[in-house]
């Protein structure tokens, strides 16, 4: 099944959400790195959602912003 990434920024709480699906209660959560939260599929262990806390502050602090995950990007079939 093809999965597209969606990005949503909540300015009020300064969190960037990166999603492959809507979050749901059964997901397991873990802090991967300094205030980066991953939500995992409970059956497969795959990352489905990321929450980057204090996103705008990170951009102001550093020239380079990296996520502590590996990714393989490809064009979607739309």
Task: Write up this protein.
The protein has 78 residues and is mainly beta. 9% of the residues lie in helices and 36% in strands. The chain contains 1 helix and 5 strands; from the N terminus they run E-E-E-E-E-H. A 5-stranded antiparallel beta sheet has the order 1-2-5-4-3, with no helix packed on it. The relative contact order is 0.22. The mean pLDDT is 90.
Ends apart, CA distance between termini: 12 Å
DSSP strand tally: 5
Low-confidence stretches: none
Radius of gyration: 13 Å
Strand order of the largest sheet: 1-2-5-4-3
Quaternary form: single chain
User: Count of helical segments?
Assistant: 1
In N-to-C order, the SSE pattern is EEEEEH
In terms of topology, how is this protein built?
Layout: E1 6-10, E2 15-19, E3 28-33, E4 36-40, E5 47-53, H1 55-61
Antiparallel strand pairs: 1-2, 2-5, 3-4, 4-5
Gist of the model:
This protein is mainly beta and 78 residues long. It is 9% helix and 36% strand.
List its salient traits.
78 residues, mainly beta, five-stranded antiparallel sheet, 1 helix
């Amino acid at each position: 099944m093809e999965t597209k990434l969606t990005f949503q920024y909540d300015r009020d709480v300064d969190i960037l959400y990166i999603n492959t699906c809507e979050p749901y209660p059964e997901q397991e959560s873990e802090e991967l790195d300094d205030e980066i939260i991953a939500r995992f599929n409970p059956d497969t262990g795959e990352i489905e959602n990321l929450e980057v806390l204090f996103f705008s502050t990170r951009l102001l602090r550093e020239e380079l912003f990296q996520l502590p995950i590996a990714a393989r990007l490809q064009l979607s079939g739309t």
